[in-house]
Each structure stands twice: as structure tokens, then as C-alpha cells.
Amino acid sequence: MRLTTDEIVNAVCLHTSERQQIPVTSVEVELSWDEEQGFTAEVWVEGRSRYLVEANLKESIVRYMLTEYGRRVYPSSITMVADEALEEIFADVIEE
Fold it and tell me: Do residues 65 and 74 touch, judged by C-beta distance below 8 A?
């Protein structure tokens, strides 16, 4: 199964709002990829920003897959993919 950039953003928003007990509409996310840092996200909550690394993104995706699709997956079954031509980031999820 492949998650789109929008679904990854939704996963991070939902996970952040749940962890911080705030409305999901209070969370903004921008995904990025570069050779030095790999996959990251900048997350803004109530005017404050913080950075998430790939492990944090995978944690959000694990939770999203369980709540939205009812499927239990593990971080090791998630592969992040950057398509520079499309300027998109995907998450390929292999169900074990």
C-alpha cells in the first residue's frame, strides 16, 4: 500500500494532535527530504515549530494505519520514498 504526501501529513497532524491533546486543525506540517537529513517534517503547533525525523514520521504512519485502516504495521515495514520529479513524498507500507 502506498500513502501519498497528503496522507503522511494527515498522519502527522492526527498523531501530534492526539499526543498534545489539541484540535487537529491547530497543527500544520511541511514534509521535506534532503541528502543530509533524510526525511523530516517541520510541525507548527500554536505558533511553535519543531522538527520530526524519519522515525517520528514512521511512528505517525503506524498509528494512522491502525486508526484509519484498521491495519497493524511496524516501522520496519514502512519505506519512505522521495519522487523528485513529482516533488512528492510517499510511504510504501508492506503488511506482514
Answer: no
Backbone φ and ψ of 71, nearest 5°: -120, 130
**Torsion, Cα of 29, 3, 14, 57 (10° steps):** -60
How many alpha carbons fall within 13 Å on the CB side of residue 51? 8
Q: Return the C-alpha cell found at 32.
A: 521535506
Q: What would the pLDDT profile of 21-68 be if each residue is shown by its tens digit? A: 999 999 999 999 988 989 999 999 988 999 999 999 999 999 999 999
pTM tops 0.90, yes or no: yes
Task: State the Cα–Cα distance between residues 39 and 34, nearest whole angstrom.
Answer: 7
